């Protein structure tokens, strides 16, 4: 069975950025880049290698003239969010985080609900930056506006 995610991804070509410590896979189109997967060899984790790969991805976005990078964090480590948050601050970029409406256990208004097709066929709720605890939400959808 095809999911909404695989349905839109079939229009994108997946590419790879590799280093001696790990691999990053991403998809591109004219409007955005979607970080599909990042993996760092276990013995090299927590040493900045993931950040280094994402920096290369942002450089690629700059070269392509793409202004948005999306990804989905589906574990509770917070590592992907922390990398994106760090790089957003370094670049002076905007970082937005979203959760599926059904996973939001807080009050929100109808103005907070958005449908971002890169993430889900279901509506997502934009989180206030001070409320983001990446270990609490799975999946956590991340949008970096360059």
Largest sheet: 8 strands, mixed
Structural class: alpha+beta
Binned, the helix content reads 10-25%
Bulk shape: globular
The strand order across the widest sheet is 1-2-3-4-8-5-7-6
Q: How many helices does DSSP assign?
A: 3
Query: Looking at the chains present, what oligomeric state does this protein adopt?
Result: single chain
**Distance between the amino and carboxyl termini:** 34 Å
Radius of gyration: 15 Å
Round the mean pLDDT to the nearest integer and report it.
Answer: 83
Strand portion: 25-35%
What string, H for helix and E for strand, traces the elements in order? HEEEHEHEEEE
Question: Spans of 5+ residues with little confidence (pLDDT < 50)?
Answer: 1-11
- What is the tally of beta strands? 8
What does this structure look like?
Helix content is 24%, strand content 31%. The protein is an alpha+beta fold and 146 residues long. It has an 8-stranded mixed beta sheet. The N and C termini lie far apart (34 Å). Mean pLDDT is 83; it is low at 1-11.
């Amino acid at each position: 069975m095809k999911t909404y995610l695989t349905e839109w991804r079939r229009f994108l070509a997946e590419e790879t950025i590799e280093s001696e410590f790990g691999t990053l896979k991403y998809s591109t189109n004219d409007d955005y880049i979607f970080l599909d997967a990042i993996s760092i060899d276990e013995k090299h984790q927590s040493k900045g290698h993931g950040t280094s790969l994402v920096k290369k991805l942002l450089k690629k976005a700059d070269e392509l003239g793409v202004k948005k990078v999306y990804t989905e964090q589906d574990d509770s480590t917070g590592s992907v969010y922390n990398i994106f948050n760090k790089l957003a601050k370094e670049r002076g970029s905007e970082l937005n985080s979203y959760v599926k409406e059904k996973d939001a256990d807080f009050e929100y208004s109808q103005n907070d609900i958005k449908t971002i097709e890169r993430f889900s066929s279901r509506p997502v709720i934009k989180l206030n930056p001070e409320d983001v605890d990446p270990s609490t939400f799975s999946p956590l959808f991340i949008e970096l506006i360059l």
